[in-house]
Write a structure and sequence with these properties.
The chain is α+β, with helices and mostly antiparallel strands. The chain has helices at residues 49-57, 108-117, 133-139, 213-218, 220-224, 318-326, 329-332, 370-384, 401-405, 411-421, 430-436, and strands at 42-44, 62-65, 80-83, 91-94, 99-103, 120-121, 155-161, 167-171, 189-196, 198-199, 202-209, 229-234, 240-247, 261-262, 286-287, 306-314, 336-344, 359-367, 390-391. The strands form 4 sheets. Strands 11, 12, 13, 14, 15, 16, 17, 18 and 19 form a 9-stranded antiparallel β-sheet that branches. It is globular and about 60 Å long.
Length: 437
Amino acid sequence: MDPHTPVTAGAGEGGEEGADRTCWEAGKARNWAGNVSFSAATVHRPRDTDELAAVVAGHRRVKAVGSGYSFSTVADTEGALVRLDRMPKAIEIDAGGSRVRVAAGVTFTELAPRLHERGFALPNLGSLPHITVAGACATGTHGSGNANPAIAAGVREVEFVTADGTLTRLDRSCPGFDGAVTSLGALGVATHLTLDLVPAFDMEQYVWEGLRWDGLVEGIDAVTASAYSVSVFTDWNRTHSVWAKRRAGDPLPDLSFTGARPADGPRHPLAGLPADNCTPQEGLPGPWWQRLPHFRADRLPSTGDELQSEYFVPLDRARDAMTAVHDLRDRLGPVLHLSELRTQAADETWIGPGHGRDSLAVHFTWRLDVPGVGRVLPAVEAALAPFGARPHWGKVFDVAPDRLAARYPCWEEFRALRTALDPGGTFRNALTERYFA
């Protein structure tokens, strides 16, 4: 396994009860999982755009980091690491234009309630709301739903500081815009994004469990179409469940055709963990932002001590891809907490994992076992290679650069855009150099 992508071994100090387990002290900076020890010589937390521009212009290498929930080295740098959490938390809602201009360091926890109060919503959210808006868009983060593209697809304008400290704005009318939102922070440091909004809506969440594997595979199209947002949780062996999130007024999801039954109480995706960490279930209606994520903003997200990987395959190859991973179940078991299957509509972002095709996202929540994951990851990637699997940029992966480049029609366009906007390589790091040098 190449050390650049899965990053360094060593778990850090994980295991705290709080949601924020990151560290941002220079020389000790680490991500939430503790598997990434940042190489940055200095850490900066500017208070406004002028301070940010001065930091960027004054350093040879710069990378911005969001909330620290990425598991790859996408935000690592040997130079200056920049956090935007002290910048003004601008949330400017344009009701007439159904849009919001939001500061890059704002999290979905901070943004979503404000939108709902004004009668607006984002079409979709990721499985946890603790992450920053800019970080989610830069890495291709997504929710679920056959008609729902990645979060970045809703961005209509991005503002960022380039290497010489200049503030640049690109919108949908600009050449290169489709390469500038999901950009891995390789073009500059984002300061603000403007996103499309939809009218606020209420949702209900239902958990079905006890699915048969054959019923799940054969019925995957109907399963993913059963609600506005659908997640399938599986250990690839005996445990399979579906979390169906429907918009109020839509038909009730019915997964009985898979052999499933409604859960008789609240559930955590991983058996044995407290369900009160999760958003309300059992059909209890509530605002979109309190149902679309799996995990509550004030509780520990996901399992805690973990690594994550995720791969996007064409949705029309879902059955074959699921079967290929299922064949590895005995090898996965010792290092796997749980997998999640979600769908995503196609988008136009050049290096977004959903570019140009509707996708099934195959997610792995691993135990915090770097060597163990390193041993099984090549088998997973080999099994999914026939389907042109594209990894999530913020997760652990090791696809060879030439193979990954062949899976993206606009790969060379992104390389050219990066060269044009960052000719001196201020925002390069080991990951982007491996894939886009």
